[in-house]
Amino acid sequence: MTFWRQVYEIARKDLLVESRTAEVALMTAPFGAAALIMIPLAIGTDAPLLTDLGPGLYWIVVLLFGILVILRKSAVDGGPQRDLVRLLGIDPAARFTGATIATSLLVLLFEVALGPVLVALYNPDLRGWPWLFLILPLVAIGMGLLGTIASGVTTSLGTRTSLTPLLVVPLALPLLLGATQAFEGLQLGGSIVPWLVLLFAVDLALAVSGILASGPLEEAVT
Amino acid sequence: MIDLVAAQVDNAWWYVTVAYIVILGGMAAFVAWLGFRTRRARRELEQLS
Amino acid sequence: MTMIRRFWLEAAAVLIVAGSLFRSFTVEADVVQGDVQRIMYVHVPSAWLAFLAFVVTMIGSVAWLRTRNRRWDRLAASSAEIGVVFTGLAILAGMIWARPVWGQFWTWEPRLVTTALLFFVYLGYLALRRAVVDPVQRAQRAAIMGIVAAVQIPIVYYSVNWWRSLHQASSRNSIDTPLRITLLLGVLAFTFVYAVLLRRRLELAHLEEELEARRFEASPDVAGAGITAPSLAKANKHD
Amino acid sequence: MNANPIVSLENVGLRIGNTLILRHAKMTLEPGEKVGLLGPNGSGKTTLLRMIATLLRPTSGSGEVLGAELGTDAVYDVRHRIVMVGHLPGLYPELTLGENTRFVARLAGRPLELADESLAMVGLAGASERRADQSSKGMLRRAELARALIIEPTLLLLDEAHAGLDAEAIGIVDDIAERVVGAGGAVILVSHEPDRLTVDRSVQIVDGTLEAVS
Q1: Residue C111 and residue C117: Cα distance in Å, rounded?
Q2: Measured between CB atoms, does C212 come within 8 Å of chain B?
Q3: pTM of the predicted model, to two decimals?
Q4: How far A26 CA lies from chain C's nearest CA (Å)?
Q5: 3-state secondary structure of C30
Q6: What's the pLDDT tens digit per position in C151-171?
Q7: Is D84 within 8 Å of A83 when comparing Cβ atoms?
Q8: Does C76 touch chain A (CB under 8 A)?
């Protein structure tokens, strides 16, 4: 049983469970879309204003409402399921990586689902849009990593749903800045490479700390 | 300095005083709170032994 | 002698803080900002103290994971609490400073933004500690968060700095030598304050741990001890 | 190999939060033994079982399971030889019984056909497409026992061994336990009803220690 085989099985299982509950596709994504509809009603429906603010609001909704993707049911095993997976002899790092991949894919799905809503409601400037194929996954991976670490340390706590967002949101700031500034850079025609490097660096730092922490984390949750 | 409103502030010492009171007062409050918790722990420890 | 041994750190801290305060009020005023700039002599040292505290939290976290000696967990927890208090104070002082100088309470200065975020990150750290009942689990989970948070601090700072530098010129110009010495004195004074507070807080942590152990010894909650045979059947028979 | 006990606990203490589960627990489990673990509700049977399954570190004392010292990294190497059937089902509620058993088979590195075969052996051949959260407690229990057939463990731990099983299925428990014992393994069965257990001997948790039951 190689490492990557274990990673694959864990991610596959998480996504299979998610496909049954459809929490992200049928609940979180519509919720995020509803938020994007509500915001202009509060701040004004002036077309140039919305074109201007649209991308920023999109990223705020992705990062804040994306917490719900992290908190979804299929992200956290119950006690008996944790025991099962541990006794199957799975490497904690493989479990961490598999769970991260599943969450990241779902955050990506969330981002993609909100994209058309942004375009339809806010008419944003989409110059340089092919870069999104890089920006969206980098942010999704960052969220997936932060989310897996945070839900790891909050597993089985009664206040998990309140504590996890508090742990994730402040640390997600570099992701927010990276994403919004890269987006802005595209519109203004500036270089976006530094921001992509930032996103990449965040992902890398989180991946390294997450994998190193996965062993101690598994012991912490009994 | 960026976006400086006034090079020289009229009631500068008032702001300075408030800031120092906040910092030193906050420090004192923390020390008092620490002391309270320490005394409480000591008292409970004595009651148990 | 014991008094000296017990209080020398406190005495030194009081002296140096008094010296630093005196110097802060008597040093010449800043050329650009005037007297308001004196807030810097407590604002910056508070922030310094907080950063120092969070670094110590990270060291304690790493050491706990390596040794599983609970003193390291006490160090991490104590230091984080002090750090959160001084992050809050630094932010407050920063806001009081910003009001006359920038005309508003908040400015998007990178260091201020980073400090504010740290306040929330470590508030989360303390909340996590409160939420976990078992001491070993608490130490373990907190250590992980303590390390992940510390690794993110420089990234957060650089990202905000970078973002800011694209929009506005860097906010800080250099200050004159006498002023800089005053600032360094403030930093030194607050480092002593940190040492004193940390020692006190560690003492409290130790007491609390002892209390927990003593309570447990006094009436160990043995699994199953509170459970007796149900008396329902007997009661039913009587009617 | 035969000389080494499968489980040996020396003066083990276990404390979780503020609850003391064990004080000075001693226990030896030899290959081929089938032992019952008795005790009233809340006496810590499940926790003891999880510790023996290497999932909890003892707070004091020392213990060895399948040659691995508890609380060290050595336990990672023996975990795949242990099957524990807890009192709550270790199944993913949203997945079907078949998907659950195949998940186990794949991660245990066993052929997928074995997953289907073992489901048939516990009498669930016709229910493999049924979701776990749509299955009855007895069915879940059978599906979990199928896990023991896939993994073929050296150490089998059954919590509430007979809970929720009908007359037909109770036999499965004994059959599976026999298989494990026959292959040189050992079994611990937890039960509230000592009469229903067919075991070599029984122990019980009394005030944090383990005592033999005559």
Answers
A1: 10
A2: no
A3: 0.89
A4: 30
A5: strand
A6: 988 888 888 877 776 655 444
A7: yes
A8: no
